[in-house]
Amino acid sequence: MVDWQVHTYASLSSTQDYVRELAEEGLPEGTVVQCLTQTKGRGRQGNEWNSPIGNLYMSALLRPGCTANQAGQLAFVVALAVSAAMDDVIESGHKKTLKWPNDILVDGKKAAGILLESDIQGDRVEGLTVGVGVNIMAPPEGAAGLQALSGGGQVPIHPFRDKLLAHLGREYECWQGEGFAPVREAWLAQAHGLGQAVKVRLAAEEFSGVFKDLDADGTLLVELADGNVRAVRAGDVYFEESE
Asked: Which residues fall within 8 angstroms of residue 61, CB to CB, at 6 or more apart?
């Protein structure tokens, strides 16, 4: 089990950048940096992550020593951990889904996002910085916040963080011991838009199809109108109800 060591700050430019910089100096696996607000928080592809006080912003360092392809599987590991932590606080009756590749939605609205960045040496991932942002008390407009979904209960940020890390430790240990197959199965059971029409946006093109499955490495499989299946390793996906 990972020995999490949490360091909390009032404000940082970005927890992700802070951990990545320190990782190069040999920080141990399990180091976690959390802040109350970020001045330059970011999500995938450099998109700004608005970071007002009242939400969870943290980055954790893992040292999986795996290949780059295997490291991508950890996005699903982290998603399962965030989802499990949310189950502890969300009132029944809400629908929580996992949107490929790195979002957690509640009732179709974004409640959390994940950002993974690797330090690759040779063909091995020596360090993996896992960024997690969870909307709790101050969700952006159009997003979901856990406080409002809790049925009137309180969702303190630090206890929620500890729940998330406990779940992440278990999911990470399962992945290390059993591989990706049980992670894939559990993720698909919560997948957003499985079997539904999807539009995929890549750097140089867009195409539409049906979200059919994940392959054994977590690649999105989209069935095209002609029956062929296209594998998507990186890109943005859009479903009609979440656009």
From this structure: 19, 22, 23, 27, 28, 29, 30, 31, 32, 127, 128, 129, 130
Q: What is the dihedral of CA 83, 48, 18, 160, to 10 degrees?
A: -30
Note the pLDDT tens digit of each residue in 162-172.
999 999 999 99
Torsions phi, psi of 74, nearest 5?
-70, -20
Whole-structure pTM value: 0.93
Q: What is the pLDDT of residues 13-59, one digit of tens each?
A: 899 999 988 888 888 999 999 999 988 766 555 566 677 899 999 99
Query: 231: how many CB neighbours lie within 10 A of its CB?
Result: 11
Q: How many CB atoms lie within 10 A of CB 165?
A: 20
Burial of 79 (0-12, 13-18, 19+ CB in 10 A): buried
